[in-house]
Structures are given as structure tokens and as C-alpha cells.
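Make up an example, fold above all:
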Amino acid sequence: MKKTLLMLLVCSTPLLANDNQKYTEALRKIASPTTEVKGVADTPIKGVKEILVDVGRGSEVMYISEDGKYLVNGSLFDIENRKDLTEAKKTDLRNDVMKSIGVAERINFYPEKDKMKHHVTVFTDIDCGYCRKLHAEMKDYNEMGIGISYLFFPRAGLQSGSFNKAVNVWCSDDQQNAMTMAKAGETVDPKQCDNPIEAHYKAGVTAGVTGTPALVLDDGTMMPGYVPPAQLKQRLDMMSMQK
């Protein structure tokens, strides 16, 4: 039995690789020559495959006919069960993203020791108005037991002014103080160092971030937009009780 299972696994691996290559070649006819399909999965629709596409700035979930002739870029809904299957897939991806980014690769604002009841990762842009509003209320979030971890998502893209500001903050000797200064509209001294800003941005694209602030829970659930401290605590408490 074990030998048969091993043979099936060995035989299936080249087939999966061939699927990736097959759909990569199909997509490159209408997209960038660097576009790459990183994963293929079945869907409930006969003849339609789910593909995870590396678009250069991150990964996106799309759907393609088995023959590679038709592409669907949108959400797939299960009407009977009232479930957004695409969002469920993205939640799984966000969960993987959150697990792959360690504490040292974020800028963290945590409550006092042993008082953190909830943890939220926030994709942020230095120049975003509501991002600044959220940061101005950091004390309130922390006092309610909510720890905030920042990842950068410069909405203007890589190598933009917002991207450079994010690098300046990351490379500062005191990242938390530099973040607070930048969020208040103050100038942070330009600095260069090895930094994860591009990785943050690509992780945001993979997570489905389209605007900031974007709040992501450790299980991959996304809450787009600014949420006031008291309201966020209430939502997090309710979600914890439902688990």
C-alpha cells in the first residue's frame, strides 16, 4: 500500500509541473513574458482550473479553462452555500503570508507584556490619511489589548516617494519613533539599508490588498479600511468567541 502511494505521488509531480508550464505558456500570450503559474488546483466547475499566478509584483488567483483557451480574472461564488470560494483561497494565502513574515520583519506596537489579547497586521502607506488616523490612535488600540504589526504597502508602487519614505523609517535607529514622525508628516532622515519593503509590498499584492490601511488577522481574515479602536476590539472579541 505504501509503495503504491509513493508511486502515485512520484507520478503526479511531473503532471503538476506540466500543468504549471502549460498554463504559463498560455498566459504569456496575453501577458508579460515573465508571468508564471505557480500552482494549479481543481474547482467545482468541470473543465475550469484555479491557478495561482505570479505577476511580478505578487501572486493572484485566477481561473482558466483546462485547454488554456479561456481566462477568468474574478471571484468564484458557491451560490448554494453562499460562499466566496476565491476569498476563501485568498484567506488561505494570507494565512500563509502572515506565517512567513516573522516579528523581526515588521514594525511592532504592542501593549504591555502579558496584556495583548489580539494581534492585527496592518498594511500601511506613510502618506495615507486613514493610516495616519489609525496610527494617531495607537495608544488606544494598545490599551484595549490590541497589538499592531506594520507591513508597508506603498500604494504608488515600488521606488515611489512613499516607498522611499518607508525605507527611511525601516532603516532608522528607532523604527517606532521614525514611524510616528512619518505618520505625523514630519521628515525622517534619508537612510539606506537592507530592507523588506519590496517583500512587504509583494506580500500585500498576494494577500489581495488594494488600499490602505488593510487589517489582516493571523488566520488570514482581512478587514479593509480604518476601524476605530473600540469597534475593532468588539469585532475581534466576537470573532474569538465564535472560534
Remarks:
- The first helix runs from residue 2 to 27.
- The radius of gyration is 21 Å.
